[in-house]
Structures are given as C-alpha cells and as structure tokens.
Amino acid sequence: WCEMRSPSLFDATLITKCALHNNNNNVSNSGPFTQIARLKDDVTVLSGRHNAGLWSNISAYDNDANVKFAIKLVRPFNPCTISFDAGENYVTVKLGNASLQVNAPYVSEWSSFLRAYFASQMRESDAGIYPIEDCPIDDFREMLDVIYPTGKPIDVWNVERMLALADRFIMPMLTRQCELFLNDGHKHTMNEIHMLLLADKYNLFLTRTNVLEKLVSTSLLRSKIIKTEGYATLSYEMKRAVDARYVELDVQER
C-alpha cells in the first residue's frame, strides 16, 4: 500500500507504477495504473491495484528483494458538480433534418462553444432553434446521454466520437472522461500506437504519459510504436516525446 496527503481536499489523477528488484539486478515491473483518488490532510489514500500481475512470480526472487513504488500526480481532476435543471430552459438544436431538445444551461456548463452559441444574438435564436452543421444526430444524442445525469459510460464504441465532439465543442470535462477510460487497460484492448495517435490528435497529455511509461524497454518501444505504420503520421512534438522516452530507457539498459 502507499499513502499521500494533501493540505486541502481535492480529487487527483494519479499514475502508479511499481517494480520488484533483487540482488541480481532482475526487475519485474507492474503498471502504470491510472486512478482517481480524493486527497485530504487527515485521510490516507490506499492503492491496491498496482499489485496486479506483480506477485505471481515472486518466488523467482530471493528474500532480499525490494519493491519500489512511483506515484505521479499529473494534475487535479475536478468532477462535474453541475446541477441539472429539468424545467423549461430548453432550446432546439437542429442537426440536418432532425432536431433535439437540449437543456441549454446544463450543456453550456460543459461546452464553452455551445455556451457562446446559445447566448448569441443570431436570427435563429429568436425562435429558439440552433442549427449545427456536419454533426450526425446519433453522435450528438450519444454525447447528451454521456454528459446528462443519467451518465452513460464511455466505452470502446463511443470514445472516439466523444473525443471528436469534445474537441469541436470545447468540452474539457468530456475529454477528461474519455482520457480516464483510455488509461484503464482493463476496459479495452486498444494497442499502444492507436492510443498514442488519439493522444496526438486530441492533445491527451495523460494518455501520452501513460502509454510511454508502460513501455519499459527500447525493444518494446520500437515494436509497439516506432516500427508501426502509424508512427510516421505522429506530430513532431509527439515524436520528440517518443525519442525522449527511448533515450531514457536506453540509458537504463546500459
């Protein structure tokens, strides 16, 4: 177990890794795992998930083996505290030939773009109808299902669509939900280059960090990232991050 303390109450995103070492310099790694933990001055935060997969081969190590834990606080995570008003604060969003009723104040708290759009003095706003071009109604309805209090979960079927809409409509909290899903390897089987491409396209710093730190050798980094077809399409900044991780691992291996 491990503990962290904080002078104030807040929800934090943590990346946890652990490694088992013995006197022969053999190392078994586990993680990284991403989790949300509530930190407070007088509360101990425990984590057990980092034990997964590490202890099954412990007999291969001698009695002097030691365990090292590394915990990184990436950035504070602010959960949604928006109240849902089921009253008459609805507008009509027109998507192609179809329309949806949208709770404008609630959605505006999620989206800076839609907040400005609903507050604009456009001709359409006089009738309470707001057209949105080039957005499938099924995707927009899926987004509402995710952000409304019903809380439909992010999954492998909607995560990329939600990332695209979160990027288009400036919805950082929705991006955050998608990123937390991507970083939980128990919920999907996306490979590393796929996740890195998403991190590159939508500027997902936590996902980038998680993917690169999970690759614990230069051979893994080459096979999973550098030698894949998708590597050539990565941005210059992402390739620099990959190169930096490669140099870090190369130094460790020497």
From TrEMBL:
Pfam families for the chain: BTB
Domain of life: Eukaryota
Family matches, as InterPro entries: BTB/POZ_dom (IPR000210), SKP1/BTB/POZ_sf (IPR011333)
Record-given protein name: BTB domain-containing protein
Domain BTB intervals: 89-148
Gene3D superfamilies in the cross-refs: Potassium Channel Kv1.1, Chain A (3.30.710.10)
